[in-house]
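Bug #77: duplicate submission created two jobs. Keeping one. Sequence:
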Amino acid sequence: MATLIKADGTIVKDIVLKGLEHKQELVGGWIETHFTRDKVFIFNEEGLLLSLPHNNKASEELGGDLVGDVIIASHDEIT
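Kept job's structure:
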């Protein structure tokens, strides 16, 4: 199951993703996805424009900068 990493460091595990609207609700807006070999990072597409706070934990997991709340899921969870 997916994990939600909030910008404040809170981690919510075992999230069941229930479609586009649910993903948008979790990240607070339109979604953008970033695929790695074994994971998908889902985050707010306008996070930088909205000046959302830096998400240290999700950024560390990705190896790049992410802002706002971030969903991390396996590839098969997002279809």
